[in-house]
Structures are given as structure tokens and as C-alpha cells.
Amino acid sequence: MAGPRTLAGILPAITGKALGRQGMAFGSLLAEWPSIVGPRLADRTLPFRIVFPRGQREQAVLHLRVTSSMAVDIQHFAPQLIERINSFFGYQAVARLKLIHAVRPNRSPRGPSLRPLSAGETAAIDAAVSTLPDQALAETLARFGRTLAARETR
């Protein structure tokens, strides 16, 4: 059995399958989008895909999902936005934007609601980890156990 692997070692294989032909450049653009365009634009826009001319890796068209209320602003600030994107890539990766009017999905979905635990449930979880010699590990596992127990549907 192989030992633990680093996230950096397996991430390209996972994201390569998820992003398909878009590649790692698009994945990094998605990950860094809020820092590239700022929080105001990041809340109302989302890169959808990037299309490069055949056989080239520059002068691409960035398809950008935009809320209807921001479309005119994005058109007006397109040159500055393209400049920020190209500064992120370090070369003239994007030549123009294509706006797609869409509702932008919420970037931070709310997690499942947690029900309050009974005193007995909390005591059982605390008792299960109380024998661990590492106190920090015991506290972490207890928090994890309480969260899992609160998520279960009964």
C-alpha cells in the first residue's frame, strides 16, 4: 500500500478530468477570480470557459457569466478587466470577453442545518474520545463527532 500523497501531486489529475480541455489555466483563473477582479465583480460574474484559437495559447475569448445588472458595467470596463486577467496570466492570454447573461451561482453555499444535540449524545461523544492521550486530537475529534451527529436525520 502506498503512503500518503501530497495534494499538489494528485490535484492535476483530478482537476484535469473535471476541467477537461479548459486546462489548469482555467482552473487557476476560477480559483483566483475574486482576487483578479475584486469582490464587487466577483459576486456578479463567473468565468464560464476560455476558448483559444486553434493551435494557440493566447488571444482567447473568455466566456463570462454576468448578472444582467452588471452587463453594461462589464462592457464598459472590459479593457481594464482584460488587462487584469492578462496580468494574472503574465501574457496576452485573453483578447476579448463574451458575456453570457445568467444568474451567478452563490459561491458560498450554506451547509446543512445542524440540529441541537441532547446532553446524552454530547456525553457519549466526549466519552468516546476521552481516552485519547493527545488532548488537541481528542477535542478535534469530539467537535467532528458532534457535527456528524447533528447532521444525521433521525
- Written as H for each helix and E for each strand, in order along the chain, the element string is HHHEEHHEHH
Q: Tally the structural domains.
A: 2
What percent of residues adopt helix (DSSP H or I)?
A: 40-55%
Please summarize the sheet with the most strands. 3 strands, mixed
Give me the secondary-structure category: alpha+beta
Poorly predicted tracts of residues: none
Shape category = elongated
CA distance, first residue to last residue: 37 Å
Explain briefly what this protein structure is.
The protein is α+β, with helices and mostly antiparallel strands and 154 residues long. Helices cover 51% and strands 14% of the residues. A hairpin with an 8-residue loop joins strand 1 and strand 2.
How does this model look, in words?
There is one protein chain. Helices cover 51% and strands 14% of the residues. Strand 1 (45-51) and strand 2 form a beta hairpin. It folds into two domains: 13-101, 2-Layer Sandwich (GMP Synthetase, Chain A, domain 3), CATH 3.30.300; 119-151, no CATH class. It has seven helices and three strands. The protein has 154 residues and is of the alpha+beta class. It has helices spanning 7-19, 23-37, 39-42, 71-76, 78-89, 119-129, 135-151; strands at 45-51, 60-66, 94-101. The protein is elongated. 10% of the residues are buried. A three-stranded mixed sheet has the order 1-2-3. Helix 1 (7-19) crosses helix 2, helix 2 crosses helix 5 (78-89) and helix 6 (119-129) runs antiparallel to helix 7 (135-151).
